[in-house]
C-alpha cells in the first residue's frame, strides 16, 4: 500500500502501446535484455492494423516472405498460403507469434492508453488508461502505426442517413452482408480499391464517389505451394530475402533500377515497363523502376503513359476510361500510393457500377436515403466511408502524452512536425516510437521498417543499461538537423506535387509538409546507429 493508503502504482521497465508487428518485435528483443515488458492494446486481439482493418478484401500489398518478422523461430514453421496475405491469414500469423513467443503473459487487451507524463524524479513515465489505471515505466514505446486515427470528411448531412454507414478503418468484426444491396462508397485509396474489388460483383448497385483516381498496379496474386515454400526455406531463399531488405531504399527485396528512363530506347523502355508491370507485378513498377522516375517529370510522363495505355485496354466504357485513367494525370505517377489490384478495372467497368467524380459533382448532401449531387439523388442501403486516416502524425498526436515542459505531442508539432530521426523527440525523454512520422514508414515495407527501428532501440537500451543511464533525450539540434534533412530529401522529388497523405494534403486545411523520410532505409538506419556509435551524438544522457 502507498503512504496515503492508496494502492501502489505498478511499475515495469518497458511499456509498449499497441500489439502489432512493432510491439512484438520490440517485446522479444527487450525481454531478452532481462527487462520486464508489458504491452497495452486497446483491441481484443493482436494484429495491429490487421485487427482493425477487416473490411472485405483487406490484404497486404507486400509479398511473401518479407511481410513478416524475420526471426527464424517464427518463419521456419509458418507458411503463408498466398503470395499477398489477406487479413484472416495475417491474424493467423499473429496467433502463431503469440504461441511461439508466449506473448500472452505480456499483453493486456482492452487497455486504452489515454496519456502519459514524465516524472523527472524517477526518470519514468506515468502512463494512464481510460479504465482509470496507471503504471510507471522507464521506457515508453508507442507502436501505434501511422494509420490509427481514422478520417471522416465533413460531408453535409452525413448523420441524416438512415441506412448503415461503415468506415473501412473500423469495419465490424463480424462482417457485413452486402449481397444484393445498393451501396455507395466514398474514397478510392488502398482500402477503397480493395472493397470495390471484393464487393463489386455482389452488390445490386455500387456508386463510387471518387476524388482522385488510383493508378493501380496488377498484384499478380497467386496461391503458394507449401512444398515449394519449404524448399525455399531450406535453400536459404527466405534468409536471402530478409537480408536483401537491408540493402534497398524501401526495405523490399528489390531497388530502383540502375538506369535512367532515357538511357533506354523507346522499344527497350516499353519492354522494361511491360516486364515490371505486367509480368512481375506488385510494386515493381513503382520501386524497381527507372531511378529518375520519381524525380524527373519527363521520365515520369513516360511511366504514366505506359501505365495508362495498359489500363485503358481493360476498360470499355469511355466515361470510365476518362475518370480512371485521364489523359492528363492529377499528379505524377507514383507520387500517391498505387494500389495493387487483381481485377479492379473489370469490376469497375460493369454497368451496375457508377463512378461519380466529386470534383465535377460534389456531394451536396447526404439525405435519409442517399447521396445528392447535381446529377440527382442516388438512393442506397449502405454507405461505405473508405476515406482513410489522419495519417502518420494523427496516431501519436491524439494521445495526451505530455513532455517535460507540459506541452503535448500535438503542441510540439504546432509549428511543424518535428522529430529526431523519426523515432524520438526533445522534451519527451525515454520515449521511442516506431513506424511514425519522419521515418521511412509509408515509403517502406512495414515489418522491415519496424524491425530496423526496433534493432536500434534494443541497441540503445542495451548500451544505456551498461552505462547506467536512466534518462535519454533527443537534443533540439538533432531534431532541427533531421527536419532540414527531411526537407532536402523531399524537395528534390516529385512527391510535393501530389495532394497525398504522404504530406498531410488529404485533409483540407491541414498543414502540408513531408511526413515520411524520403532518403531511403539504408541512410536511415545508418544515421540511427551512427548516433550511438558516435557516443550518443544528438542525445542528452543522464
Ligand atoms: O486511405 P487513403 P486508405 N470526398 O487516404 C478519399 C495503408 N493501407 O484507408 O485521393 C471524396 O489512401 C481520398 O481521396 P484523395 C496504405 O499505406 C494498406 O485507403 O485524397 N473522397 C482517397 O481516395 C494506404 O495507402 C493496405 O483525393 C475523399 C480515400 O478517400 C493507407 O493505409 C490497405 C474525401 C482515402 O484513401 C491508407 O489507405 C489499406 C472527400 N471529402 C490501407 N476525403 C494494403 O496494404 C477523402 N477522400 C493493401
Could you walk me through the main structural features you see in this protein, from its secondary elements to its overall organization?
- The chain is of the alpha/beta class and 542 residues long.
- Helix content is 31%, strand content 15%.
- Strands 3-2-1-6-5-4-17 form a seven-stranded mixed sheet, with helices on one face. A five-stranded parallel sheet has the order 7-16-8-9-12, with no helix packed on it.
- Helix 1 runs parallel beside helix 15 (446-466) and helix 15 (446-466) packs parallel to helix 17.
- The structure holds 3-acetylpyridine adenine dinucleotide (N01).
- Residues 53, 59-61, 147, 153, 168, 186-192, 194, 209, 211-212, 337, 358, 386-389, 442, 501, 506 line the site of 3-acetylpyridine adenine dinucleotide.
Q: What is the global morphology?
A: globular
Tally of helical runs:
17
* Separation of the first and last Cα atoms: 30 Å
Quantity of strands, as a count:
19
Bound molecules: 3-acetylpyridine adenine dinucleotide
Uncertain residue segments: none
Strand residue percentage: 15-25%
- How helix-rich are the residues, as a percent range? 25-40%
* Rg (C-alpha, Å): 24 Å
What is the arithmetic mean of pLDDT?
A: 97
Task: Name the structural class.
Answer: alpha/beta
Amino acid at each position: 500500500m502507498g503512504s496515503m493508503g492508496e494502492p501502489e502504482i505498478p511499475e515495469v521497465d518497458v511499456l509498449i502501446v499497441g500489439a502489432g508487428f512493432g510491439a512484438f518485435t520490440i517485446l522479444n528483443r527487450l525481454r531478452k535484455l532481462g527487462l520486464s515488458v508489458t504491452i497495452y492494446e486497446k483491441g481484443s486481439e493482436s494484429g495491429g492494423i490487421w485487427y482493425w482493418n477487416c473490411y472485405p478484401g483487406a490484404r497486404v500489398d507486400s509479398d511473401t516472405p518479407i511481410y513478416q518478422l524475420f526471426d527464424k523461430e517464427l518463419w521456419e514453421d509458418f507458411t503463408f498460403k498466398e503470395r499477398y496475405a489477406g487479413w484472416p491469414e495475417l491474424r493467423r500469423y499473429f496467433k502463431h507469434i503469440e504461441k511461439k513467443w508466449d506473448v500472452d503473459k505480456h499483453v493486456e487487451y482492452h487497455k486504452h492508453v489515454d496519456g502519459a507524463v514524465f516524472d523527472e524524479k524517477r526518470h519514468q513515465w506515468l502512463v494512464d488508461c481510460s479504465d482509470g489505471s496507471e503504471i510507471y515505466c522507464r521506457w515508453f514505446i508507442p507502436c501505434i502505426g501511422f494509420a490509427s486515427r481514422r478520417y471522416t470528411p465533413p460531408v453535409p448531412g452525413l448523420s441524416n442517413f438512415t441506412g448503415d454507414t461503415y468506415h473501412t478503418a473500423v469495419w465490424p468484426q463480424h462482417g457485413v452482408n452486402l449481397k444484393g444491396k445498393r451501396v455507395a462508397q466514398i474514397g478510392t485509396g488502398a482500402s477503397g480499391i480493395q472493397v470495390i474489388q471484393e464487393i463489386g460483383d455482389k452488390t445490386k448497385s455500387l456508386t463510387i464517389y471518387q476524388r482522385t483516381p488510383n493508378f493501380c498496379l496488377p498484384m499478380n496474386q497467386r496461391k503458394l505451394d507449401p512444398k515449394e515454400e519449404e524448399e525455399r526455406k531450406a535453400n536459404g531463399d527466405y534468409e536471402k530475402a530478409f537480408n536483401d531488405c537491408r540493402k534497398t531504399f524501401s526495405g523490399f527485396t528489390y531497388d530502383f533500377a540502375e538506369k535512367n528512363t532515357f538511357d533506354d530506347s523507346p522499344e527497350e523502355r516499353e519492354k522494361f515497363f511491360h516486364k515490371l508491370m505486367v509480368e512481375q507485378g506488385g510494386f515493381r513498377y513503382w520501386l524497381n523502376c527507372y531511378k529518375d522516375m520519381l524525380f524527373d517529370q519527363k521520365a515520369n510522363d513516360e511511366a504514366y503513359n505506359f501505365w495508362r495505355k495498359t489500363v485503358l485496354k481493360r476498360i470499355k466504357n469511355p466515361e470510365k476510361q476518362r475518370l480512371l485513367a485521364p489523359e492528363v494525370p492529377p499528379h505524377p505517377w507514383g507520387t500517391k500510393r498505387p494500389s495493387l489490384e487483381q481485377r479492379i478495372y473489370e469490376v469497375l467497368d460493369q454497368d451496375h457500377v457508377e463512378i461519380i467524380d466529386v470534383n465535377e459533382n460534389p456531394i451536396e448532401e447526404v439525405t435519409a436515403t442517399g447521396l445528392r449531387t447535381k446529377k440527382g439523388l442516388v438512393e442506397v442501403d449502405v454507405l461505405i466511408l473508405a476515406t482513410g486516416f489522419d495519417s502518420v502524425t494523427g496516431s501519436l498526436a491524439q494521445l495526451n502524452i505530455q513532455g517535460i515542459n507540459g506541452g503535448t505531442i500535438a503542441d510540439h508539432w504546432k509549428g511543424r512536425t518535428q522529430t529526431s530521426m523519426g523515432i524520438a523527440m526533445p522534451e519527451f525523454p525515454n520515449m521511442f516510437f516506431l513506424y511514425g512520422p519522419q521515418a521511412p514508414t509509408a515509403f517502406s515495407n512495414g515489418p522491415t521498417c519496424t524491425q530496423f527501428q526496433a534493432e536500434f532501440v534494443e541497441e540503445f537500451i542495451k548500451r544505456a543499461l551498461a552505462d547506467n543511464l536512466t534518462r535519454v533525450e533527443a537534443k533540439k539540434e538533432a531534431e532541427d538537423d533531421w527536419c532540414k534533412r527531411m526537407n532536402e530529401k523531399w524537395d528534390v522529388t516529385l512527391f510535393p506535387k501530389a495532394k497525398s497523405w504522404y504530406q498531410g494534403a488529404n485533409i483540407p486545411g491541414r498543414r502540408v509538409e513531408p511526413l515520411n523520410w524520403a532518403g531511403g532505409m539504408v541512410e536511415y538506419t545508418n544515421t540511427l546507429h551512427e548516433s550511438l556509435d558516435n557516443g550518443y551524438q544528438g542525445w542528452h544522457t543522464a
